[in-house]
Amino acid sequence: MRITVLAVPDCPHAPLARERIDQALGGRAADVEVVEVADETQAVRLGMTGSPTILIDGTDRFALPAVTASVSCRLYRGPDGRTEGAPSVADLQQALAVAEAGGDCDCPPLDAAGRDGRDRLAPISGGLRAVQQAILRSFAGNGRAPEAADLEQAAQAFSRDRHEVLAELAAEDFVTLDRQGRIQAAYPFSATPTAHRVRLADGTELWAMCAIDALGIPDMLGTDAVIISSDPVTGETITITSTSGQMTWQPHSAVVYVGQQACTGPAALVTCGALNFFTGRETARSWAEQHPDYTGKVIDQAHAEALGRSIFGSLLAGGE
Questions:
Q1: Cα(41)–Cα(35) distance, rounded to whole angstroms?
Q2: pTM of the full predicted structure?
Q3: Residue 129's pLDDT is what?
Q4: What is the DSSP letter of 95?
């Protein structure tokens, strides 16, 4: 993996970016370099949209729409809503995991996380995170989505109407709602049965939106769990047992296909249909050939687990 930090000379935030990259890598091998950018012409050529810009295998995974090349100072918004001169370690870990999942694919960079690569943890402002976490805890506690009335207390603490907060969460793709405003999904959970069932250590049974979501649930809840899914091609059962943070896959040859459609929209529509478990690479590739509307690649168990943890592991850890 090649990581490039593009920065103007003496950028005060470049050392922070470099330090956080090292923390996010956690000892993994990578070719990391800092490149000084002197003027707008060089910024255009190298793809710098503010200093510092971080490229992972040549791609700016923190890019925002309609932002042009610039040598101005660049700020990054963290999970808590604050802006800093570099992405958070958690955001960098997520970007690295997504890059590892799709980095060598001859197609646009994969966004398995949805939300255009942005964090799945809602901002604190406006009660968004408080309501999101109340929804997630309801799923974790009884396997079901809460009714809107159950979220009243969390929303009122921020002087907000629960319906307004839910609508905002849906607009930002933290949840999906049906036409009556009922919660259909709160990533990683689904309110309706899917191909991915998760049984927690206390016996609670949940449905995950996709394979990556299922893999993130044990770490997010800090519990042992059993994930039960099936190969979409053969119908064979795939079981992943998570014990004390270690996952055991059956069959041992099982893999995950990570893909997306070439369109915009909520992750439930764009990516979840192409994030599946397979008994092996052959059936995964067979499925991909049968679904040309998706682009993606097969990833191994270690990368799939890392992707799930990076996206969902911290959803209940952030303060409200």
A1: 14
A2: 0.68
A3: 93
A4: H
